[in-house]
Amino acid sequence: MNVSLRQPWLLLALLASGATLTARASDDARAWLGRMNEALTTRNYDGVFFHVHGGRVETMRIIHRVRDGSVMERLVSLDGSGREFVRTGTELVCYLPDKRTVLVERRPQETTLLGNLPRFDQSTQGFYDLKHVERARLMGRDTRVIAVLPKDGFRYGYRLWIDEATTMPLKTQLCDARGNVIEQIQFANLSLPRDIADAEFRPQVDTEGYKWLRQDARQERVAAGGASIVWRALRLPPGFRLTLRAAQAMPGSEGPVEHLVFSDGLASVSVFVEMSPDGKSPMTGPARVGSSSAFSTTVSGHQVTAVGEVPPETVRFIANSVEADRSGRTGGPAAPPPGLSLGPPPRR
Amino acid sequence: MNEEQRASQLSAMFDGELAAGECELVARRLTRDADLRAEWARYAVIGAALRREPGVRLDLQVAGRVRRAVSTEASYQEADDAAAARPAARQARRWLRPAAGFAAAAVVAGVAVIGLRGRDAALPAAAPLPVVASTAAPAATAAQATVVLGPSAALEPESYVVPVANEPVNFVPPAQLANYVVAHSEVSMPLSRRNLLSALVATEQDDGAPAVDAARATDAVSATDER
């Protein structure tokens, strides 16, 4: 190229501006990602969306309200199981008509957990390519399309259509490292009312004769006392680090459950450790719930289960590296063994 | 509510113009009312055709999970024939507007295929069905057809294909696993939290779960029953 030979400064300038543009696109995408997560947690909204996974489509409605710092949310299946989840502050109630069961999950404190949510920072950027793709029209509105592409096979990526005016995601796709869409959520309609009446959060399920599963206060105190054994992950997939450790009571579990959270800043994996159940066969091996993966194994008489919206390899890797820390140290995770390779397959 | 009001409510829902509360009512009614489902199917086909949805195509190899998702106890053949007697042009007009998009189209096309059982070739003349019909060859039976979401070439430069059914579909999670997923959702980023909970809400019982998983699920449920 003649220009570059005669005027190398021009080439440099071009390269530099190219790099700046890339960096700007990435920063921009990151900012939109942040705004979107903020909108999802802080705004009032009410919408019907389609959840597509595994060749199946289900219509759902989500209603979300933040009033005086307190969150209420109702998620209801409109055409399938009739299941409903209603979150009120720190309590999540799951109505499962197909099992005639109501499950009550209680969080210790709302604020602690919110402070520990994954954050997309500089180190996260090493494991994903962030792309600000283009603007597109969706549902008759202007959206920004953001692509978050994983650089290896340990995590999933996202493609997001974010409404410019409200920063709400109108359509989201969860994709593997090859770009295959694993799960899609798209709103058919979405409104952002100034306020939402309490009546909207009342479940439609008649719970007459249902079984209620909830942990009692005594159980919570036991959990607050903490477990005697400290658990740790000897190794973690690249980019993941311990972000939260808590002992908690869970409905359906006898003793306290140790809950460890590992995150790369975007994806997160929870590890639950509890005493192996007496007289019942513990869960072992892989499992799936929607697009999330789980893997269970037994370590020192305890059942260890890793769960996360990550590929099956990632939860297997983490579950298999959990061990009881007899020395009392909670040392940092090491890199995966050199033999393990989970690089992305070639793009099609 | 008379037929016309009902029809306009349906198409408003497809156009994303119906309030969420009303959408919920319509969706609930859809699960009960075979006539309404047939209507929905008709709109869907017409809409997909008029919009020439590039993202909608039908995959005949995947089992009919969509069929289950939209509840099919009634005979669509009858309902469809009844619906065919109504003028399609009025309904078609609304569909000239851009509608809800891929997922809607997917649901739509899914229902459409079901609605077309046994009469694939006999679509209304007003709807040329360039996309749906070309792949929903007459050989397609409702039981085998399901929907694949494809990208619109204009929007998606890379190879983003489909929420594929290339893996065993989610089975009923054992109660304990469900508890874990709920607890995990609390520490996930807001977007993932919604995905996780949606998956739990969507999980159905009768979905070809491997025997071992079903057994384990039953085990877990009865175990919690004892408490």
Tell me about this structure.
The complex is a heterodimer of chains A (348) and B (227). Chain A folds into 2 domains: 20-201, outer membrane lipoprotein receptor (LolB), chain A, CATH 2.50.20; 215-324, Phosphorylase Kinase, domain 1 (2-Layer Sandwich), CATH 3.30.200. Chain A is built from 6 helices and 20 strands. Chain A has helices spanning 2-6, 8-42, 110-115, 122-125, 217-225, 312-320, and strands spanning 45-53, 56-67, 70-77, 84-88, 91-96, 101-106, 128-138, 141-150, 157-163, 169-175, 181-191, 211-214, 231-233, 241-248, 257-263, 268-275, 285-289, 292-299, 302-308, 322-324. A 12-stranded mixed beta sheet of chain A has the order 7-8-9-10-11-1-2-3-4-5-6-12, covered by helices on one side. Chain A has a 6-stranded antiparallel beta sheet with strand order 14-15-16-19-18-17. Chain A has a two-stranded antiparallel ribbon with strand order 13-20. In chain A, strand 5 and strand 6 form a beta hairpin. The radius of gyration of chain A is 23 Å and the shape is globular. Residues 1-5, 110-115 and 329-348 of chain A have low confidence and may be disordered. In chain B, helix 2 crosses helix 3 and helix 3 crosses helix 5. Helix content of chain B is 53%, strand content 4%. Chain B folds into 2 domains: 3-149, no CATH class; 175-225, no CATH class. A two-stranded antiparallel sheet of chain B has the order 1-2. Chain B is mainly alpha-helical and 227 residues long. Chains A and B meet through helix 2, strand 1, strand 2, strand 3 and strand 6 of A and helix 2, helix 4, helix 7, strand 2 and helix 9 of B.
